[in-house]
Amino acid sequence: MKTFIKILSNSILILAFFNLTIFAGTNFGAKGASSETTLNLTKMLNYAIQDEYLAQAEYRYIIEKFGNKRPFSNIIKAEKRHIEMLIPVFNTHNISVPQDIAANHLIETGSVKDSLKAGVQAEIDNINMYQLFLKQELPGDVRDVFERLMKASQNHLRAFKRALSRY
């Protein structure tokens, strides 16, 4: 019995490592969208929600590591609303909402200043992703949501730049 439990736990550890390795090498969120050669509605919605999941996970990580600091404490709430804006669009177009695996794609930062710099870059990447999507032929409801999310990211970018300028 002890041998079986040992084999089972080792197998679980190997599978967990393999899973993390796979996720770390995949295209995810805005970075994935930027390297995409053929976009369609499903891919765009998936990249969009992945990027919103990622922002929420990153800001949660930063708050846990450095404390409830602004603008992270404000923007994390907005990221939740962004995800909530996207889910009805998935449902309207009969597209499955992907699981939130963003925790497998986090980039650790060493300081609040580094976190602010990462926030600036994440919002720039997010804005670029939505600009790319808005060049495509889109249903009206999707275009509306993407435009609103891009404007929100522009606001977040300003907040991160303002906070960074104080350091």
Q: CATH topology, which one?
A: Ferritin
Mean pLDDT: 82
Query: Rg to the nearest angstrom?
Result: 18 Å
Tell me the strand percentage band. Answer: under 5%
CATH class: Mainly Alpha
Question: Can you tell me the CATH superfamily?
Answer: Ferritin, core subunit, four-helix bundle
Number of strands: 0
| Inertia-based shape | globular
Q: Main beta sheet: strand number and arrangement?
A: none
Total discrete domains: 1
End-to-end distance: 58 Å
Helix count from the secondary structure assignment: 6
Instruction: Give start-end ranges of low-pLDDT stretches.
Output: 4-25
CATH architecture: Up-down Bundle
**Helix vs. strand class:** mainly alpha
What is the H-and-E element order?
HHHHHH
How are the SSEs placed, and which strands pair?
Elements: H1 2-24, H2 29-34, H3 41-66, H4 72-92, H5 112-134, H6 140-165
Helix pairs in contact: 3-4, 3-5, 4-6, 5-6
